[in-house]
Structures are given as C-alpha cells and as structure tokens.
C-alpha cells in the first residue's frame, strides 16, 4: 500500500499558512443559499462525471482496475481501494467499447461521454458528438443557474503543437460537447469558477447592481449583434448565430442567478486567490466548489477532468517522479506499471474524498450522495497501447444499486452508449439512442 | 485593379523561377510512367496507402488534382517517398519531376488564385491581454478572467477553433466589469488577495536577475494597485513537508521594499528562533511570518515590491556548497538557508479614489469637464477615442448612441462623470466589435470569388500578425484614409511595426509556439537522473531562445542564422550548464559560441529539453520535431495500438542501447517507413542529454554513436553535419519557417492551394538573403493575406478541414 500521509500533512500545512487556499467562507454562505433549496419537498437528482487521463493499467497480465469477480459483492481492485467505504453504492461497469482505433488520446476523452469518434481535422469542422451531460441538461437542469459546469485542472495552453497529429487540440481540452460541433471550454481557475457562481465579489448590493448592469449590457449587445449579422458572410453567420444563442443563454443565467445569489445580503464575498500550487489542493478546491454548487442547487450537472490526456504532471508526493503520460507508456515494465497504478489509485483517493464529503452532507431528508450519481473513469483501458476496449467506468450513487460489477462480454463490442442510456434513465431521462448505441442496456438498476 | 496587380506579381514570379515547358504533354507521359513504376504498388485504389491513390490521376491535368499533387510534392521534397530502401529514380530525375510538378501547380495558382477564407476571428486570451495593455495602459491577468482557448495547427490564434460558449461570454462580461473599474480607479472595487509564488524548484541560493545587488533569492513583483489605500504584504517561506521553515539555524536578514524603498527589515533564524523550532515549529513559523508582515500606504498605480534576503558578506552560504544545482528535496530537511515561498498582497484597506494620475487614467481621461455642462461633450470625446481603438475602425453614430446610453446610466447610478465613463468603457469591452474581428464581404459579390479585404481589415490583420494586438492610432489613421493599399505605405508600416517593441509578440507568441517553448513548462526532468536541473535553468533556456529569436528579428538577419549563428545569450547559470567560462552574474548577454555543436536552435536547451522524456532523450521525438518544424515534412501520426518500446528499468544493469531497441522497432515494416526517417536525425543529436548537457556516454553508460543516414540516403554523423545538411540547402527549412509563419499570420491552417504562395515567398525572399523582414513582407503582400474568398459554394470545399500537409 501507498502511504498518503505525507501529502495530507502538506496540504493541511498550506491551509494553515498565510497563503489561503481554502474557502472558509463557503461554509458560511451555504445556509442562506440552501434555505431556498431545502424548501423543495423532493430533492433534485444531481450527476457528475469525473475523468482521469492516459488510461489505466489494464493489460492481459496485470489489471489494476477491473474486479476479478463479476456480479454482486465483487472484489475491490487496487485502484478502487480508496472507495472501499462506499462499496455498497459502487457499481463497476466493464467490457464496453470506446473509440478504439481512433485518435490516440483525442479519441479517449472525446468518446468517454459522447460515444462518438473525433473527426480527424484541425479546422472549423471539428466534430464529435453531444455529450451525456449536455443531453441531460436539456431535460433536468430545471431552474439552476448553471445547466452544467465544466471544470478541469490543467491549463491546456502548454499543449499547443503537441496534440495528436492531425487532430485539433480542441478534442483534448474537454470531455463536454454542447453539440457535435461545439466543444465546451473547461474552467481551471477556482477564482473564475467562484466569481461565476456568486456573481463576482463585493457586497450584496454591488453584486445585485452588477447583475442588472450585465443584463442591460447583454440586451444592448444582442441588438448590436443583430445588426452585425446582416454584415457578415454566410459561413460567419453560423458563428454569429452561435454567439446570439450564447448571449440569450447567459441572460437567462443572470436572471436565475439574481433570484438565487442576490439574496446573499450583507455578506462580502471574497474569491479564492487563484490556482493552488499543489495538485491535490487544486483538485480539492474544485471539488469543494462543485460540492457547494450541488448543495445549493446552483447546478445539477457537472464534468470534471482531474487531469487531461497527455498530462505531464509528476507525483513526487506519492513517489512517482515521472510525468504521468510518460509512465503510462510503461512497456509492461513491472516497475513502471506499479507507478502508473499508484497515480491511478491516488486520483481515485482524491475522488473518494469528494464522495466522503457528499455522503456527509445533509440534503433534504437524506445526504447529498443519496441524491447524486457520480461517474468516474477513463477513456482508455490499456493506456500503454492506447487501447479503448473495455473502458473503465465506476458509478457511485445513492440511487443505483451498488456493490456490483457489471461485466459485459468485451468480445461483443458493445458501445459505451449502452451505459449512458442506463445512466440517463436513472436521471429520469429516456433516450432511444445515444452515440453508437441504439438503445441497449447494461442493466444498471 | 488591386486583384490584377497581385495576380501579375504571382505570374511574373512564376515565370522567372519556373521551367519553360512547351512539352508539358510529353512530360506528363514520362512522369506518369515513373509514378506507375515507383509508386502505384502501394498507391493504387486497392492498397490505397495513406489514403492516397495515384493510379487514376491525369498527369496532363495537374491543376485538377492539385490537392493530391501537393501531397506528392511534400513527400518528394522531403525525400521520404518511395520509402527508404525501396527503388527510387536517380536523384536528378527525381528532382526534375518534383520541380515539374511544382511549376505546373504554381501556374494554375497564378491564373486562379484561391486566397482561402479564415473563419470569424475571436480575440484569444493573449490578444485580449495585449489590446487592453495598449488601449488602457493596464496589465491584466487574463488567466484569472477566462477559460483557456483551443488551438489547432500548432497555434492558439487559429480562428476555426476559437469558438464561443456561455462560460466564455461570462468571462468577457466579468473582464469588462473588472477592467473598466481598474482603469478608472473605481473606489468601490472590492478588496482582494493576489498571490505570487516562487517556483519551489527555483534555487534561491544566489542573486536573482532584476533584484537589487547585494541580495540573495526572493522575488520582485510588479503589482498594479487600482486605488489609494493601505495594502498588506505577507510573505511565506519555504518549508519542508513537516511545515518547518528551512534554514533557520543561523540568522538571516529579510527585506521588503516598495519602489526601492525599504518598508520592512527583519531578522529570521538564529538562536532564539532555532531553539524553539524543534519544540514548536508551528509557533515559530507563525512568528516569523508575522514578523515579515507589513502594511503600507500606497498610491494607486503600479509599484514594484521586492522581497529578498540580504547577502551575507564574505561567508559562503551553506547551500552553495551542495554538489548539485537542484534544491534539496529531502522532505524533512531543515538545514540550508531560507527561501521565499510566496507573497500575498491584500487590500486596499481604507480605499480612496486615486490621488495621482495612474497611467490608465492618463490614457482614458483625454479631457476633463470643467463643469457639468462640459460633461457630455467630454464623454463623447473619451468614449469615441476608446471605441475607435477597441473596434479598430472609425466610430459611427450608432456606436455613439449606444455608448451615450451607457454613459448616462453610469453617470446616474454612480453619481459621477467618471462613473459614466466607466460604464461606457464596460460596454465597449463587451461589444462583439471588440471581441471579434469582423471582415465583411463586398455587397453583391458572386459566390466563391476572391476579393481584396478593406484597408481597415488589412490593418487589423497586420497588427494582430506583428503585434498580437490592435492597430495603433497611426496605422488606423492610414487605413481609414485608404492609404494602406499603397504598397509603399504598407512597406513603411511593416518596417515601423517590426521596429516597435510590440513586435516582441513574434517571439513570445509565434516563436514560442513554433518552437514549442511553451511546452517547456510541462517538462519535468527526473531529479535523480538530472540533479543539475533546477527552475533557474528552465527559465534560462526560455530566455535564451526568446532573446536569440528576437535578435535575429531585430537585426533583420537571414532566417537561416537561427540554425547557424555563432552567438547566443547566456547568464552565469546557463553558461555553467553549457560549459562556457567567464560569464558571471544573473543578467543575460550576447556570447560568442566557440563550440560549433552548440550553435543555433539545435544546440539550445529549449529544443533539447522539450523533445526529451523525463529520464532520457528521445531520438524519435527529436527527429519528428526537426522534420515538422525545420524540414516541412511532418511525420504522420503513429497508428493506434503500436507496441511501445521496451524500456530499460532504471536500476537494472541489463541495459540495451536505445539504438538497438529502436532498430528492433524498425524491423516492423509498418514502423520502418517513418522511423527510418525520424530516428537517424534524432541519433545525430545524441551528444546532448535530456536537458541539453553535452555528453560522451548515454544514460546507460554506453558511448554515443551519432551516425546514421537520412531519407535522401546521405550519411551524417553528429549535430554539425545535420545542421549543415539543413542550412546549406535551406529551401526545405525556409518552407517550414514560411508555412509556420503564414499559418500564424492568417490564423488558419494552410491548404494545398496555399503551397504555391509558400514557394513564391521562399523564392522571392531568397533574393534578399532570407532576411527576416523580407519573409514578413512577402507574407503581408501575399494573396491570402490581402485577399479573401467570398462566401458560397467552393469556399466550403476549400476549408473542409483536410490539413494542407497530408498527415498520412
């Protein structure tokens, strides 16, 4: 086993030092926000998708992810050990086919939530498929301020020029697609996320004024854009139309936000100072923000890339000095496989702490986890060879029967969309088809 | 008129440089049979290797198959087809065939140019930041305001993928709010925390560039204080994993200064701190950090905060005696000397409106109303001036009507004239005219017809190309008067803009991306394999390459000098790394390079490190990098499911040379076609390790073997011979440079129909010794830069996403 104590100590100390990374006031503002949320009799269902990159150690000889036993009461694998205390609510689904044979890393993150292949292009015709979070948003986002939230850890700017040959970096920057042609940017800066959530900093009056001003600016911009539309050529019209649609969406968000966070009377909201230097602190802060967003019903649907494909983060705090991507190509060398496994388990550990928090948070007559479905996994099985067969998915949820390993026969090449349709059903959304799936079910009950 | 002048230029260039071909028909037959003999085994409709069939293309109609033939030209110019080892025509015939194809393709392009059509441009983060800097004299941290941009074709300014999302729009709105408040100095700006961090792997044992002499370590912060008020500066110090501040055994003096004036001097460490350290580290930490905390009254504007240690005289500091450059990572180490971990600036407390004119206020308030009656007129003047810069065009009545509304709104709600201006500015920064770079099609133009963009649009293309920012007043005035279409005026402007400091964006944005300098940050050399790597070295690499590129540009040298120049830029840290003697101090200076191997980009740490793995070099990555960035022949992506290379375990003695392992990999014919071209290039660079140190033995202790043979069959040995091959016949290198710069200039990927333009730029700039400015000038004058295809059928197929340089 790996000793994580050291890294925890480090984190605690950072908290204690003068450079604040935590959000002590978040807790304080939650009550006034939840007061509204708590009045609803039925707690809404929330969903979150947490992605980890570069596949896992899943070779024929050594599989650190897939439980050996199928069905009820399965054995926890090495990577999933940190989720042991939530095993009753844990379902592992294996054997589904991702975007095998397409875009080494682009295909991984693209297909995980869309069940579509990335089109090999760097041009304006970037295309994949709508992602499940976005499909669900159309049905169950309700009156939340943010129909969906997209979060990530790594700024993708350092990747320029180093993405899969022939594929736009757009594919690797996100797992969320508004439609087959529109990849959605993921926010990496907690400060940006925070200010988005709470309408910026300042007193309640200042925030209220800002909402009003922004609405009036958007009205005026909308008018201006209509004038512009006439001026531009046909291909540009599509982008202008897109822009118009986005303006309307932001207007709606502001209205909903006004109704919600406008109530934070008297409190001065200060935002986090930026991106924490340490990876685990950054991850935890993003999870904290998401936790609050769920708790206060600012959003019900979120995606989170804990790292991106080709990630070059090294993890000296757990004894892995190599960069994640390099070590993921372990060439079946046992030492390297062990290190890749350590990283994967470490990611699962950070995720499990978020699950702990969800399970410990009251929500209506139960806990937040009771009303939430979290999907965790990767877009490749064997990262060493970029294989996208038997994609790893783990589901932790209060309303999905847990303690199960659903093992699909991988020779049947059933698309991951079969799982997505099941997930959607749990969220109260019936889909006839999704991605490549024509309506199959993996039996997620 | 304009169209035909450009056409003429292209035609004449082609005729001069081209080969006369009265016998085009018989040539076609000859070359067709050559293709049949050497190529169609693989490239027939059945095998269809790389998705390319040459069986059914009509050689008498090259123009109709331009897309296919450009692929053929690329492969032939890279000498990469037929694959190494397969029969090829003799070199003279091979070359003649490639020239014939190029000539045929160029002829067609001259008659029927296709300037392409970039998508609607949106400012990316970098451009947004620069425009705000130039317009409002304000530096903003855009990363704290909006989500990262997408990129394609190796650049983040490619319009195709700069799409829009609600999150992005919210980012723009928030940015407009914040920036307008900062520029004006809105007294209601909320108090906030700004954190600055020192990279924990940066050694602070010596003097740091830009800090006062006689100091050691620390950091300098150029912080913008939007308002008058009191600000609190706190410092944190480097600790081990048990939260113990390092280096407190002996006393050290730590100083905080603002604009060169000391505002705090403390002693930390020594007997009293150290004796309590082992009992209660938390208390000592809190006490030391409390001791270093200071509150200072400051006026609005930019101030330079320096946090640093005073250098002890005479005595050698403990850490300077350690054998390696990298800082000590022992998790429980408490020795050494203290270092700064980070600083937090919090404020303002007791905020007041600026009492002094900040640079932003000076720019914004070009007039001041003497009485309420003057206000409307002055507001008009201020806002129309700002809008002109922001919209990059003359302002019209409709614009002003909108801005007056917002001015009135702010004037009323804030109760001040300045509040009105702030609101107007916020509206300007939220405008689609600011966020997008609109280019209009002429009224009534037929579909898919090339047209010349307007002078104002050209001005924007020019400034975003050369400055990554908006046109300044001079350029805008000239364009508004319709003078920019005069080639002489255009030339003057290009020269003026290249000489302006803002053209540094060609280094920081263009070269940074072309040479993958930005990827330096994600490299993590293994600290056991490379104990001499530290953050100071990473920064030195970056500075070296940026200054080197900048000097080639500013001195207007031959672009080939980027490979061959006998000088570079170094400070002491880098000189020590490169084994150059006699360079002292942290500042960078131009140094003549006696060691030929170290000359040019191929000998610089940036290239050598971004292409390495954490524990070793990667000849494959280096080879691929050279092919793509210096030889215009990017290798295709590896197939999915490739068997990975067998690595040597770090600690085993059973080491097999990398060369042997790669050779085994190449035994697979599926891998060989590309690796035969990439690997020898990489091996010729093996004399440099993964962080660019020269070496005689590889990671496994085996002697370096730098020999190999290139795709053309030419044998080379070592970096000098590789450089010679590239630099002595520089057409391929110049094509690579031109393709990259043109992609960046146009903000779109290149298509097959752009290749004649690239060839023409290379040919023409050769007459001027490939001077940097001549390549830039030819790009600016080129058809795709000056023109655009009108919307409609034809245009769609043109941008239908197939990369110009075939990737398979």
Notable traits:
heterodimer, A: 445 residues, alpha/beta, two-stranded antiparallel sheet, globular, B: 808 residues, alpha+beta, four-stranded antiparallel beta sheet, 30 helices, 16 strands, 43% helix, disordered C terminus
Chart the SSEs and their pairings.
The complex is a heterodimer of chains A (445) and B (808).
Chain A: H1 5-16, H2 24-38, E1 46-52, E2 71-72, E3 90-94, H3 106-114, H4 132-140, E4 149-152, E5 177-179, E6 182-183, H5 190-198, H6 204-229, H7 234-261, H8 279-295, E7 301-305, E8 314-315, E9 320-323, H9 324-328, H10 334-359, E10 362-363, E11 366-367, E12 372-378, E13 393-397, E14 404-407, H11 417-426
Parallel strand pairs in A: 1-7, 1-12, 3-14, 4-7
Antiparallel strand pairs in A: 2-14, 3-13, 5-6, 8-9, 10-11, 12-13
Helix pairs in contact in A: 5-8, 6-7, 8-10
Chain B: H1 2-17, H2 24-38, H3 66-77, H4 91-111, E1 121-122, H5 125-136, H6 166-184, E2 192-197, E3 215-225, E4 228-237, E5 252-258, E6 261-268, H7 271-277, H8 281-291, E7 294-298, E8 301-310, E9 340-352, H9 359-364, H10 372-391, H11 397-414, H12 417-429, H13 432-435, E10 436-437, E11 450-452, H14 455-466, H15 473-480, H16 487-499, H17 505-514, H18 535-554, H19 561-564, E12 567-570, H20 572-578, E13 589-592, H21 605-610, H22 619-630, H23 658-666, H24 669-683, E14 707-709, E15 715-717, H25 719-728, H26 731-746, H27 755-766, H28 772-781, H29 783-786, E16 787-789, H30 795-798
Antiparallel strand pairs in B: 1-10, 2-9, 3-8, 4-7, 4-9, 5-6, 5-8, 11-16, 12-13, 14-15
Helix pairs in contact in B: 1-4, 1-27, 3-4, 4-27, 6-12, 7-8, 10-11, 10-12, 11-12, 14-15, 16-28, 17-18, 22-24, 23-24, 26-27, 26-28, 27-28
Question: Could you characterize what this model shows?
Answer:
The complex is a heterodimer of chains A (445) and B (808). Helix content of chain A is 37%, strand content 12%. Chain A has 445 residues and is of the alpha/beta class. In chain A, a hairpin with a 4-residue loop joins strand 8 (314-315) and strand 9 (320-323). The radius of gyration of chain A is 22 Å and the shape is globular. Chain B has a 4-stranded antiparallel β-sheet. Chain B has a 4-stranded antiparallel β-sheet with strand order 3-8-5-6, with no helix packed on it. In chain B, strands 1-10 form a two-stranded antiparallel ribbon. In chain B, 43% of the residues lie in helices and 12% in strands. In chain B, strand 14 and strand 15 form a beta hairpin. The interface between A and B is large, with 109 and 122 residues.
């Amino acid at each position: 086993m790996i000793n994580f104590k050291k890294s925890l100590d480090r984190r605690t100390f950072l908290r204690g030092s003068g450079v604040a990374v935590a959000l002590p006031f978040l807790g304080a503002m939650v009550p006034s926000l939840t007061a509204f949320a708590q009045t609803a009799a039925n707690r809404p269902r929330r969903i979150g998708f947490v992605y980890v990159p570069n596949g896992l150690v899943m070779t024929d000889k050594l599989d650190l992810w897939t439980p050996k036993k199928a069905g009820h009461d399965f054995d926890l694998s090495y990577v999933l050990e940190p989720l042991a205390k939530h095993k009753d609510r844990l379902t592992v689904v294996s054997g589904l086919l991702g975007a095998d044979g397409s875009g080494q890393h682009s295909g991984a993150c693209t297909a995980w939530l869309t069940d579509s292949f990335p089109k090999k292009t760097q041009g304006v015709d970037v295309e994949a498929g709508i992602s499940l979070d976005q499909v669900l948003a159309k049905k169950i986002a309700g009156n939340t301020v943010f129909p969906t939230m997209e979060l990530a850890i790594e700024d993708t700017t350092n990747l320029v020029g180093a993405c899969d040959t022939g594929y736009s970096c757009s594919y690797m920057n996100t797992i969320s697609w508004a439609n087959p042609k529109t990849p959605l940017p993921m926010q990496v800066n907690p400060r940006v996320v925070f200010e988005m959530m709470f309408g910026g900093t300042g007193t309640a009056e200042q925030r209220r004024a800002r909402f009003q001003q922004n609405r009036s600016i958007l009205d005026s911009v909308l008018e201006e854009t209509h004038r512009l539309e006439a001026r531009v050529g046909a291909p540009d019209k599509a982008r202008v139309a897109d822009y118009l649609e986005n303006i309307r969406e932001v207007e709606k968000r502001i209205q909903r936000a006004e109704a919600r966070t406008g109530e934070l009377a008297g409190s001065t909201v200060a935002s986090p100072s930026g991106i924490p230097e340490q990876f685990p602190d950054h991850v935890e802060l993003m999870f904290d923000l998401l936790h609050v967003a769920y708790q206060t019903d600012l959003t019900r649907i979120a995606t989170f890339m804990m790292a991106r494909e080709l990630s070059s983060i090294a993890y000296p705090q757990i004894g892995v000095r190599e960069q994640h991507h390099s070590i993921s190509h372990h060439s079946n060398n046992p030492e390297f496989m062990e290190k890749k496994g350590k990283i994967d388990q470490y990611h699962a550990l950070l995720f499990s702490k978020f699950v702990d928090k969800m399970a410990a948070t009251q929500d209506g007559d139960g806990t937040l986890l009771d009303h939430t479905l979290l999907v965790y996994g990767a877009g490749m099985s064997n990262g060493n060879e970029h294989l996208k067969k038997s994609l790893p998915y783990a589901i932790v949820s209060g309303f999905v029967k847990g303690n199960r390993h659903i093992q699909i026969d991988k020779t049947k090449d059933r698309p991951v969309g079969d799982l997505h349709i099941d997930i959607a059903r749990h969220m109260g959304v019936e889909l006839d088809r999704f991605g490549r799936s024509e309506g199959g079910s993996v039996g997620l009950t | 008129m304009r169209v035909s002048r450009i056409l003429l230029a292209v035609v004449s260039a082609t005729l001069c440089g081209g080969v006369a071909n009265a016998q085009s028909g018989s040539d076609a037959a000859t070359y067709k049979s050559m293709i049949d003999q050497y190529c169609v085994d693989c490239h027939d409709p059945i095998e269809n290797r790389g998705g390319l069939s040459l069986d059914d293309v009509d050689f008498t109609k090259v123009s109709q198959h331009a897309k296919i033939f450009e692929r053929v030209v690329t492969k032939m110019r890279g000498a990469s087809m037929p694959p190494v080892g397969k029969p090829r025509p003799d070199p003279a015939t091979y070359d003649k065939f490639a020239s014939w194809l190029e000539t045929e393709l160029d002829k067609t392009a001259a008659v029927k140019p296709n300037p392409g059509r970039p998508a609607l441009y949106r400012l990316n983060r970098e451009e947004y930041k620069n425009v705000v800097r130039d317009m409002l004299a304000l530096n903003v941290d855009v990363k704290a305001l909006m989500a990262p941009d997408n990129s394609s074709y190796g650049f983040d300014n490619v319009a195709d993928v700069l799409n829009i999302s609600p999150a992005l729009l919210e980012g723009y709105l928030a940015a407009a709010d914040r920036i307008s408040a900062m520029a004006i100095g809105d007294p209601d700006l909320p108090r906030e925390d700004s954190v600055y961090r020192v990279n924990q792997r940066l050694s602070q044992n010596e003097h740091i560039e830009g800090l006062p002499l006689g100091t050691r370590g620390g950091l300098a912060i150029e912080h913008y204080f939007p308002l008058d008020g009191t600000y609190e500066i706190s410092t944190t110090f480097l600790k081990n994993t048990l939260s113990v501040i390092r280096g407190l055994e002996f006393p050290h003096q730590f100083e905080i200064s603002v604009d060169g004036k000391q505002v705090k001097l403390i002693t930390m460490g020594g007997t009293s701190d150290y004796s309590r350290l082992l009992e209660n580290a938390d208390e000592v930490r809190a006490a030391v950090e409390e001791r270093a905390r200071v509150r200072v009254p400051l006026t609005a504007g930019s101030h330079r905060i320096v946090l640093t240690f005073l250098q002890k005289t005479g005595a050698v500091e403990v850490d300077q005696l350690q054998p390696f450059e990298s800082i000590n990572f022992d998790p429980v180490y408490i020795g050494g000397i203290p270092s700064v971990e980070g600083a937090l600036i919090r404020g303002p407390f007791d905020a007041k409106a600026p009492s002094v004119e900040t640079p932003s206020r000076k720019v914004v308030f070009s007039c001041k109303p003497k009485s309420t009656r003057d206000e409307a007129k002055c507001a008009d003047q201020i806002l129309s001036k700002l809008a002109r810069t922001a919209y990059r065009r003359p302002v019209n009545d409709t614009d002003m009507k909108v801005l007056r509304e917002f001015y009135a709104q702010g004037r009323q709600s804030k109760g001040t004239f300045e509040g009105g201006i702030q609101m107007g500015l916020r509206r300007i920064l939220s405008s689609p005219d600011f966020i997008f770079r609109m280019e209009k099609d002429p009224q009534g133009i037929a579909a898919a017809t090339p047209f010349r963009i307007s002078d104002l649009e050209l001005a924007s293309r020019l400034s975003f190309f050369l400055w990554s920012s908006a046109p300044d007043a001079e350029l805008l005035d000239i364009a508004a008067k319709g003078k920019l279409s005069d080639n002489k005026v255009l030339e003057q402007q290009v020269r003026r803009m290249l000489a302006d400091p803002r053209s540094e964006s060609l280094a920081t944005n263009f070269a940074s991306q072309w040479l993958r300098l930005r990827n330096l940050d994600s490299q993590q050399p293994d600290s056991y394999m490379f104990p001499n790597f530290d953050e100071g070295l990473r920064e030195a690499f970056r500075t070296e390459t940026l200054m080197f590129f900048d000097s080639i540009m500013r001195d207007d040298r031959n672009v080939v000098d980027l490979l061959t120049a006998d000088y570079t830029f170094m400070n002491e840290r880098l000189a020590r790394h490169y084994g150059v003697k006699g360079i002292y101090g942290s500042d960078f200076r131009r140094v003549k390079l006696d060691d030929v191997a170290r000359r040019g980009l191929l000998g610089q740490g940036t290239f050598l490190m971004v292409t390495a793995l954490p524990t070793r070099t990667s000849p494959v990555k280096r080879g691929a990098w050279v092919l793509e960035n210096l030889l215009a022949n990017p290798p295709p992506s590896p197939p999915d499911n490739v068997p990975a290379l067998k690595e040597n375990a770090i600690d085993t003695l059973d080491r097999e040379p990398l060369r042997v392992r790669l050779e085994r990999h190449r035994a697979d014919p599926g891998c060989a076609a590309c690796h035969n071209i990439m690997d020898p290039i990489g091996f010729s660079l093996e004399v440099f390790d993964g962080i660019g140190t020269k070496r005689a033995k590889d990671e496994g202790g085996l002697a370096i073997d730098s020999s190999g043979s290139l795709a053309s069959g030419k044998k080379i040995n070592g970096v000098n011979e590789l450089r010679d091959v590239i630099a002595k016949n520089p057409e391929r290198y110049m094509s690579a440079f031109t393709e990259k710069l043109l992609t960046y200039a146009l903000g779109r990927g290149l298509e097959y129909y752009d290749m004649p333009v690239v060839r023409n730029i290379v040919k023409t700039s050769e007459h001027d010794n490939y001077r940097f400015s001549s390549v830039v000038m030819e790009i600016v004058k080129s058809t795709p830069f000056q023109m655009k295809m009108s919307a409609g059928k034809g245009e769609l197929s043109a941008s239908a996403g197939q990369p110009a340089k075939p990737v398979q």
